[in-house]
Design goal:
The complex is a heterotrimer of chains A (167), B (535) and C (495). Chain B is an alpha/beta fold. Chain B has 20 helices and 16 strands. In chain B, the strands form three sheets. A seven-stranded mixed sheet of chain B has the order 1-2-3-4-5-7-9, sandwiched between helices. In chain B, strands 10, 11, 12, 13, 14, 15 and 16 form a seven-stranded mixed sheet that branches. Chain C is an alpha+beta fold. Classes of the chains: A mainly beta (167), B alpha/beta (535), C alpha+beta (495). At the A-C interface, β1, β2, β3, β4 and β6 of A face β17, α13, β23, α14 and α18 of C.
């Protein structure tokens, strides 16, 4: 089972192995070659890929590796297979409304126990001075509302959880 | 250690014709394995899809660490049984790396007769667990079987080494502290239910996995109770009510991820320390093996040429090079591990038998594993030899082989006949792993010899009644016997019956031995200890 | 500047982020004590650490705190501040606030409240400018006669720009190219004007196609002296928000430049303007019209400082201290070319969605002709509580091409990890052919959405990113280290 990394919303599968000459990276159905990192001081070093070396800056924050490379910043997130495989089906059984971007809750329109149809407005959020409705992804019953009016949240935050409408 | 000097001329005619022949045999092996592994009736593949199940080999690939080797054992089990309808005996077993640990995997192949257990399936599973016990290898079971194939129950149920042995072996493994994890991906019914129950850890896939001593039809017939498989023995019930199951999984991949995580928790084994240095590849190209193995199995060849293409740097330290020359003995390294090699360059005589027995004891004292390269028709016979004690010298060799505490590995390179099989660590002498080459033969004596002996008996019978046979009638009696013998002594027959752990392409021998050696070192090596050598 | 002392020795900064840091820098240089007010969410911001004193303020929301004039004046009093710098945004153009500050005996570092009031009402300002015979775009002002408003607008002819008269910063504005859509545009602009500014009144003016936004920095003293400090071009905009500014403008001939700058100075003079301000024009096809005047220091003032060598904040403080301008128009010279790029916490590739995070690593570009005005510090949490601007990257060079190259390098060298920014977008704009040719107008980015979206995937870069991420992630490295060397050397061998 390969390791999974989320880069720009896309899952990349890869495997790192170790030989006498150092580490070797295999990207699933793709590139493979030798890789090495020579750290010069904390958070800065030279990344050597197939013999070609270049300067990089990096910070590891939990499961996310933030990288500055060739003048641009990136974030690559390690996806634990246990979490990914478990929740893939959890969310198939649950109805979850997530925030498409960071913002603030303007007003919640439903209460616990309400039965709603797919597409019903659960709450209105505000971001970038634009008000956006958050809708129920599927028919269901409001199981939990995770935010209050006036509360701020980050992108992808779970705003409301619904359970299956009719079992 | 000195490098062997090869005397092979790779441009000679017989090298070329051997090469062509052996490459064809290797291609045939590859093709037969491919068919046994992958070719299935369309409806069986469709059924798996409908049941939301993965093909067994996809499960194994997901289980293994990527970019690591998998040594599959007895791929062609059952290839000459059950009308060829049960490839691999509906089982896949092999040694691989899961979460960095060496494990042996035992997987039911539900694409073959629903994964039903035929007699050879049971034998294959028992063999896998025997390997686990002897080498202290953790086991991962991927369970998905329809249960025992009832029409043949007499051949797999009651006897000592039949199905019960699976559960006995599991219990012994647990007693030894060798962990097992079972992943339930289908119904584990009746006996099969004990595999997850006797495993230290188990994972059940919701919706497709179930454990019960009796399935819904049996329950209905026995008590009239109507209950679904999921309710009776599914993941949620067993993991939250009965405690028979440890981890529920949402899907097969999830279950495999959990199993990998469990194996990651196993303590690192303490490996036996034997002499080891950094590996180096053989100095001679292993591909040349194709040209060295004679096309005609009756033609003798020098085992040193084989050794030179299997061992590190082609370096070999020969022991007693001028004595007992029909048995080549010496030290070499395979993937850095020092091994003691015994290889046949002809029939066994008293001197070679004594040399072998002595060398085995040297290796045992030295904690050096033994590698037997077989090409043996037997011991020398005749008055002269009997008087010199060939029987008791052969006995000493067998005593040494049986008593050696270091791991033994056997490769049948060509012929393996009669007592020679015993003296060269055949199956009965518990080599940790035993492999054969495609052209190899194993039987009590050569086909021609056997056909000759049996035909003679028949002729004498007829002569007593005053009958004489024509050439054709002679052939009519001899030829079927010859045919039968040839078939039943072939490598494919032996591997079908699981008399060995698999046929290898000769060029794969080095890698297979490396993996086998590494696996064997998970068990401690007892001190040297022998029976009585008839002096 | 250094010879006589000011009538105050302590200045309160009623602002935050990079401008607060900027002002503190000049105060230090001038030997003045700095006090900054801050809301709790800004507790770890650099200005708070740099100021001599920091006073906490509170509000229903963080923004509300910085809009609470009373609280801020009370803070100034308690700190003994004799002057107050409002920065930009917040209360900087609030005439009532300016009056209260002065009434409290604190010098307001900015223009008079009257000037703020005049220029704050777009309609009054426009009328004032027109009356003084400076160029304005043909327009229809609703207030003059609401009944005929739309008709009068129609008479100007398309294309038209509909604006809330109380607005600013581009909010609520609408372009109407087809007169049949005029009524709808009016209704929508009115509703937005009400929502954002509390005032639904509108005015409509001729819209210049492919307009360029040219503004002129002006500076006046209390003695009636007014100079201009040349122009800035701010046409690189998105939805009327500025992204890149530069000076001199690549669009203007020497004569047009002189005309526009003198017009601006004239307007400021006519208004009796004191302290720093900016007169904004719309320029297109050789014509320019007065747009509005901003009675405060602008975000993009650094480019003017880079070409003139002046410290505008210092000049503001001097004027507020009652001094004469130390130079006449003829003394002011511009050298070379300057460009400023605004770094925002947003993702242009995802429709400019705001981004959040924590500043885990921060390193500014260094070197000749490079200046960074930043409002962030390592360890700070970036939230959506305020405007998303993080820093300004400003460069100066002899020629425009050199300045562009210097700006591109500076952006590449700017390291900020932990919060996504628009840096790649800035780089793409600077590399764009249209920008390099000096052909950008205010609608350019909206017409070329590909610049925001970004280029095709760079698989080579992706490979490197995955390689580095793999090497730095413990489970990945541990898994590699766990495989025994013998098996690792065999790779994915199968028999």
């Amino acid at each position: 089972m390969h390791h999974r990394f989320d880069l720009d919303g896309e899952i990349n599968e890869l495997w790192l192995s170790r030989g006498p000459a150092g580490y070797h990276l295999q990207i699933a159905d793709g590139w493979s070659g030798s890789v090495a990192l020579i750290e010069e001081r904390a958070g800065h070093g030279r990344l050597v890929v197939d013999g070609k070396s270049e300067q990089v800056a990096y910070v590891v924050d939990g499961d996310v590796v933030h990288i500055h490379c060739r003048g641009r910043a990136y974030a690559v997130r390690y996806v634990d297979p246990l979490l990914a495989l478990a929740s893939a089906s959890d969310e198939a059984g649950h109805n979850v409304a997530r925030a498409p971007m960071p913002g603030v809750v303007v007003s919640v329109k439903v209460t616990l126990g309400d039965t709603v149809a797919a597409g019903a407005v659960l709450m209105v959020i505000e971001s970038m001075k634009l008000e956006t409705p958050i809708r129920a992804p599927q028919d269901g019953v409001i199981e939990r509302i995770h935010v209050r009016d006036g509360e701020s949240f980050d992108r992808d935050a779970v705003l409301a959880t619904l359970s299956q409408g009719n079992g | 250690m000195q490098r062997l000097r090869s005397l092979t001329d790779t441009r000679a005619d017989d090298f070329r014709s051997n090469d062509g022949h052996n490459r064809r045999l290797a291609a045939e092996l590859k093709e037969r394995q491919r068919i046994a592994r992958f070719v299935r009736p369309e409806r069986d593949i469709e059924r798996l899809g409908r049941q939301n199940k993965m093909f067994v080999r996809d499960r194994i690939e997901a289980l293994l660490d990527p970019d690591t080797p998998f040594l599959e054992l007895s791929t062609l089990a059952g290839n000459m049984a059950y009308d060829g309808e049960v490839p691999g005996a509906a089982q896949v077993i092999g040694i691989g790396i899961v979460s960095g640990k060496e494990v042996i995997i035992h997987a039911d192949d539900a694409s073959v007769k629903g994964g039903a257990w035929y007699p050879l399936s049971v034998k294959k599973i028992v063999r896998a667990l025997d390997i686990a016990i002897e080498n202290r290898l953790p086991v991962v079971h991927l369970c998905d079987s329809a249960g025992g194939f009832l029409p043949l129950q007499a051949q797999f149920f009651a006897d000592r080494y039949y199905a019960g042995r699976i559960f006995r072996n599991q219990s012994v493994l647990s007693k030894m502290g060798v962990p097992q994890v079972a992943v339930v991906m289908g119904h584990c019914t009746a006996g099969g239910a004990y595999i997850p129950a006797l495993s230290d850890y188990n994972v059940i896939v919701r919706g497709t996995g179930a454990i019960f001593l009796g399935g819904p039809p049996l329950v209905k017939a026995a008590t009239g109770e109507e209950v679904s498989a999921e309710e009776l023995g599914g993941a949620d019930m067993h993991t939250s009510v009965s405690g028979t199951g440890d981890y529920p999984a949402a899907s097969e991949l999830h279950a495999i991820a959990i199993a990998r995580d469990i194996v990651g928790r196993f303590a690192h084994p303490e490996k036996s320390k034997i002499d080891w240095v950094d590996p180096e590849p053989p100095a001679y190209d292993p591909d040349e093996l194709y040209g060295i193995i004679p096309k005609d199995p009756r033609v003798q060849f020098d085992m040193r040429e084989i050794i030179a293409r299997v061992v590190d740097g082609s370096r070999f330290h020969e022991y007693q090079p001028r004595y007992g020359q029909s048995l080549v003995c010496g030290f070499a390294r395979v993937f850095g591990y020092q091994v003691g090699i015994l290889a046949n360059n002809g029939v066994l005589f008293s001197d070679s038998a004594l040399k072998g027995a002595h060398f085995i004891q040297l290796c045992d004292k030295n904690r050096t594993p033994l590698l037997f390269l077989q090409n043996i028709t037997g011991f020398m016979v005749g008055r002269e030899y009997e008087r010199r004690g060939i029987t008791k010298d052969g006995a000493k060799l067998i005593m040494a082989v049986a008593g050696a505490s270091v791991p033994k590995f056997t490769v049948v390179c060509n012929g393996s006949y009669g007592a020679g099989t015993y003296g060269m660590a055949g199956r009965a002498f518990d080599p940790r792993f035993m492999f054969t080459w495609p052209q190899s033969q194993v039987s009590v004596m050569g086909a021609e010899q056997a056909a000759g002996v049996l035909t003679d008996i028949k002729l004498r019978q007829l002569a007593r009644n005053g009958q004489e046979l024509s050439e054709q009638e002679h052939a009519a009696i001899r030829d079927p016997i010859l045919e039968d013998y040839r078939l039943q002594s072939s490598a494919y027959y032996a591997t079908s019956e699981i008399w060995d752990d698999g046929i290898l392409d000769p060029v794969d021998t080095r890698n297979a031995l490396g993996i086998a050696l590494s696996a064997s070192l998970n068990a401690p090596i007892a001190p040297p200890h022998y029976g009585v050598f008839r002096m | 500047m250094a010879d006589s002392s000011f009538p105050f020795d302590c200045v309160l900064i009623a602002n935050r982020g990079e401008i607060a840091v900027r002002i503190i820098g000049t105060l230090r240089k001038l030997g003045l004590r700095s006090v900054v007010v801050y809301h709790e969410v800004d507790a770890r911001a650099p200005a708070v650490a740099l100021a001599d004193q920091a006073i906490a303020i509170s509000g229903r929301t963080p923004v509300a705190a910085y809009l609470d004039g009373e609280q801020i004046i009370a803070a100034a009093r308690s700190a003994g501040a004799g002057a107050l710098h409002p920065g930009y945004g917040f209360l900087s153009e609030n005439a009532a606030f300016a009056r209260s500050v002065e009434a409290a005996g604190i010098a307001f570092i900015g223009p008079s409240a009257d000037a703020i009031e005049l220029m704050g009402d777009k309609i009054r300002a426009r009328n004032f400018v027109a009356r003084n015979e400076f160029p304005v775009a043909p327009s229809a002002i609703e207030e003059e006669d609401p009944a005929t408003f739309v008709e009068r607008a129609r008479a100007i002819g398309a294309p038209l720009l509909v604006k809330p008269s109380a607005g600013g910063g581009g909010k609520g504005m609408r372009i109407v190219r087809d007169l049949s859509g005029l009524d709808d545009a009016v209704a929508q602009a009115r509703s937005e004007g009400q929502r954002y500014f509390g005032d639904g009144r509108l005015y409509i003016e001729r819209f210049v196609e492919q307009p360029r936004h040219i503004e002129v920095q002006v500076l006046g003293d209390a003695f009636g002296n007014v100079v201009h400090l040349f122009e800035r071009e701010c046409s690189v905009q998105r939805r009327f928000q500025k992204i890149i500014e530069e000076t001199p403008s690549p669009a203007l001939s020497a004569q047009t430049r002189q005309k526009i700058c003198e017009t601006a100075a004239g307007i400021a003079r006519a208004a009796g303007y004191r302290n720093a301000g900016t007169v904004e024009f719309i320029y297109g096809r050789g014509e320019f019209y007065f747009l509005e005047m901003n009675t405060r220091l602008q975000v993009e003032h650094p480019v003017t400082e880079m070409i003139t060598g002046l410290d505008l904040v210092a000049e503001q403080i001097a004027v507020a201290a009652g001094r004469r301008l130390p130079f006449a128009q003829g003394d002011v010279r511009a050298h070379g070319h300057a460009i400023e790029a605004r770094l925002y916490a947003e993702a242009p590739e995802r429709n400019f969605s705001p981004t959040t995070g924590k500043v885990l690593a921060l390193r500014y570009p260094q070197g000749e002709g490079v200046r960074v005005d930043s409002g962030i510090a390592q360890g700070q949490t970036i939230t959506t509580a305020f405007d998303p601007m993080l820093a300004k990257i400003v460069v100066h060079a002899t020629t425009r091409d050199e300045a562009i190259a210097r700006a591109r390098r500076a952006i590449e060298e700017f390291v900020l990890l932990g919060c996504e920014t628009n840096a790649a977008f800035l780089a793409r704009i600077l590399g764009d052919q249209g920008f390099k040719a000096g052909e950008v107008h205010t609608g350019y980015l909206d017409e070329n959405p590909g610049i925001a979206r970004g280029g095709s995937r760079d698989t080579d870069a992706e490979t490197r990113l995955l390689a580095l991420a793999a090497l730095l992630t413990r489970p990945v490295r541990d898994a590699a280290d766990a495989v025994p060397p013998l098996h690792a050397s065999l790779g994915s061998w199968r028999n």
